[in-house]
Amino acid sequence: MATVEELKLRVRELENELIKCKQKQCAMEDALHRPKIDKMSAEVVDSNPYSRLMALKRMGVVEDYEKIRTFTVAVVGVGGVGSVTAEMLTRCGIGKLLLFDYDKVELANMNRLFFQPHQAGLSKVEAAELTLRNINPDVLFETHNYNITTMENFTHFMDRISHGGLEEGSPVDLVLSCVDNFEARMAINTACNELGQIWMESGVSENAVSGHIQLIIPGETACFACAPPLVVAANIDEKTLKREGVCAASLPTTMGVVAGLLVQNVLKYLLKFGSVSYYLGYNAMQDFFPTMAMKANPQCNDRHCRRQQEEYNKKEAQRPKVEVVEVEEDVVHEDNEWGIELVSETTDADLQAASGTMPDLPEGITVAYTIPAAQDTTNGETVEETEQSLEDLMAQMRKL
Amino acid sequence: MATVEELKLRVRELENELIKCKQKQCAMEDALHRPKIDKMSAEVVDSNPYSRLMALKRMGVVEDYEKIRTFTVAVVGVGGVGSVTAEMLTRCGIGKLLLFDYDKVELANMNRLFFQPHQAGLSKVEAAELTLRNINPDVLFETHNYNITTMENFTHFMDRISHGGLEEGSPVDLVLSCVDNFEARMAINTACNELGQIWMESGVSENAVSGHIQLIIPGETACFACAPPLVVAANIDEKTLKREGVCAASLPTTMGVVAGLLVQNVLKYLLKFGSVSYYLGYNAMQDFFPTMAMKANPQCNDRHCRRQQEEYNKKEAQRPKVEVVEVEEDVVHEDNEWGIELVSETTDADLQAASGTMPDLPEGITVAYTIPAAQDTTNGETVEETEQSLEDLMAQMRKL
C-alpha cells in the first residue's frame, strides 16, 4: 500500500511529465506559425520573407510590388494545378485567396505537388488553407467546399466572385479556372460573362504531356462558348473513370509548369509588367509552346457574351482616335461563319512539327481536348491540341 | 492537507491526461508516415499513390514506367529550383536521390515553393529529406551538407557521383545542377567531364524573369568550359550581396517553371519518351522559349572534355554507317575559331522580339548571364540571354 509521501512524489512526477508533454505540443504548434507582417519590407535580412520579391522593384521589373496585397484572386479547383497556383500566389503575398473545390485529398494525388500523405481524407480546400496559412499568415483565405455546377452553389459562387474582394462587397480581381472537366469550365464561363469578370483558364491533357493557359476578357477575347473549345479536357467525370478501373495520367512536372506559367501571367496582369499571353500552350514531348489570340464571336451562344461584346464595341468606338488609323482593330474577320480571328504567332510548320503521335487509349478516355457537340456534350470528337488549324476545326464544326 | 484518497484520485487523473497527451503526439507523428510500397501498381484506387503515373503506360506515353525505381539522380543545390526538382522526382517515385547543399533554410526563402517557415534554421538538405521522406518513403535519400567547391568536399562529391548509385559502387544516372553561382557550376562541369557523367544545368536570372535548362553530354555537346557561358548566373556570391544590403530577385513562378521543365526532361531522358531538349530558355516577360544545341569545342580548356571528345569521335567513327550519308554530323563548324556550332530553332527576329528592356541595376548586380573573362572571373560583361547571336558573342570574346 502506497504511503502519502510516495503518492505525493508520483503526483509531482506525473505533473512534470505532463508539463513537458504539453510544452512539446505547444512547440510543435508554435513552430508552424510565423507572426503576421504589417508592411512589406525590402530589407535584405534572412528573416524577411518578402526581400526577394521587393527586389523586383530595384531590378526594374515591377514598379510597385506592394500593390500585390491589394488584390483578390479566386482559384476554382484545388487539384494538381490549382493547389500549386494557390501556393505560388500565397508565397508572392497576394491579398486574399478564394478557394473552391468539393474533392477530398487521396493518396492517389501524391504524384502531384502540394498535398502530403497525412492530409489524406481531409477536404482539399481545408487541407490547402491549413498549409497556406502556415506558409504565409499575411494572406486572407476564404474557402468553399462545394461543387460550383449545382444551381444553388452556382448562385453562391456568382455572389462570392462579385462581392468577395478584399473589401467585402467589392468583386475579386481575377478568377482562375484550374478545374478538370467541361461542366465546371462552362459554369465559370457563364458566371464571368454575366459579371464581365476577367478570368484565366488552365488545363492539362489526360495523357499528362500537354497543357495550356488562356486569358478571357468578356466581350473582347473569345469566351469558352465563342470558339470550338480547343482547350477543353475530355468530358468524362472522375467517378466514371474510377468505376471503369481507368484513370487519366498526370505528372507533377506538367502541372507545375502550367501552374507556373499561369501565376506568372497573373502577376504580369495584376502588377502590369511584361506582356500577358492570350493563349499559351505547352507540349512536353517536344518542349514546344504555341501562342495565339482569338477575338470574341458575335454569334456566340452565350447572350451575356454578346452583351459584353456590344458594350466593348461601344466603348471602343467612343475612344478618341489618337493614332493615325487603328488598323482594322474592330473589323470582324469574315473568312469563317463564326467570325473568329485566329492570330497565331507560330507557323503551320511549327504546329505540325509539335504534334505528337496519338497514343492508343482505352475506351472512355480521349487524349487531349474535345469539341463537344452543341447539345450532346458527352460525345465530343477528339482533337490533338496543336494538330489542327482553326480552319480544320471550322470544317469539322460545319459537318456536325 | 491531502488525504491518500485525494492523492490517488489526482494520480489517476494525471495518468489519464498524460496518456491522452502521448496518444495525440503519436497520432501527430503517425500521420506523417505512410507505409512503404514494394511494387508499383497501376490499380485505380484512391489509396494508390502511383496510379496516375502508371497510367502513362496505358496512355502510350511511357513504355515501362516502373523503371523509374532503378534510377539514381544527384541534385546539387537544394534552393528554389533544386528543392522543387527533388520534390517532383520524389513524387514520381525515383529510386534514389543524392542531395548536396550547405545552406540553411531562412524566412527569406519563403517566396519560393517547398520550404516552410517552421523549417527556418535547419540545413536545407536535412529539412528537404524530412519533407521528402514523408511524401514518399519508397525513395532512398543520401544527403551531404557541404560546399562542393572546396578541395576535400569536391573529392568526396566526385566519389559519390561515381559510386553513390542505387547499387552502392555504381555511378548515379544523372547529375542536376541547381546551383546559383559560377564556381559551383564549374565544379560540377569539371567532375562530370572527368567522369564522363551526363548532367543537366539549370539557372534563373537575377531579375527573376528568365531561366534555362541545358543537357550536357561530355565529349558530345558543349560543356560549361567549351562555350562562352551564355547561361551563367552573375558571379557574385550571396554573402557579398547581403553585405551590400542588396539581393537578387526571385519568384516561385519562374523557379517552378524551370524545375518543371528540368524534371520533365529528366523523365524523358531516363524513361525514353519524347525528345530531350539540349538547351531550352524561358523568357517570362514575353512567354518565349528559345531552343538550341551546341557541339563540344575541340579547343576547350578542360583537358577531360577534350579527352571525352576524342573518345566520342572514335566511337562515332567506328559506328557502322547504315544510312545513306550522315550529313556533316561530325564536321567541325569552321566559321568561328572556337569551333562551336550553334543550331538555333528560333529566328533572329524571334530572338530580337523576345529581348526585354534592360533594367536599371544597382552596382554589383548584373541582369542575366555573364561572360567571365578568361582569368578574372569577377568582372564579366553582361549579356541579356536572348539578345545576342553567337556571332556577336564571338566578336565580344575576340575583343577581350
Alpha plus pi helix count of chain A: 11
Question: CATH H-level name of the domain at 50-318 in chain A... which superfamily?
Answer: NAD(P)-binding Rossmann-like Domain
Question: Main sheet of chain A, how many strands, which sense, barrel?
Answer: 9 strands, mixed
Q: Termini distance of chain A?
A: 92 Å
**Overall 3D shape of chain A:** elongated
> What is the averaged pLDDT score of chain A?
80
CATH topology grouping of the domain at 50-318 in chain A? Rossmann fold
Placed side by side, the strands forming the largest sheet of chain A appear as 3-2-1-4-5-6-7-8-9
| Helix-and-strand structural type of chain A | alpha/beta
The helix/strand series of chain A, from N terminus to C terminus, equals HHEHEHEHEHEEHHEEHEHEEH
- Low-pLDDT windows of residues of chain A: 231-243, 325-390
Query: Based on the structure given, which CATH architecture of the domain at 50-318 in chain A is correct?
Result: 3-Layer(aba) Sandwich
Oligomerization status of the protein chains: homodimer
CATH C-level of the domain at 50-318 in chain A: Alpha Beta
Strand proportion of chain A, as a percent range, falls in 5-15%
Q: Find the count of extended strands of chain A (DSSP E, 2+ residues).
A: 11
Helical amount of chain A: 25-40%
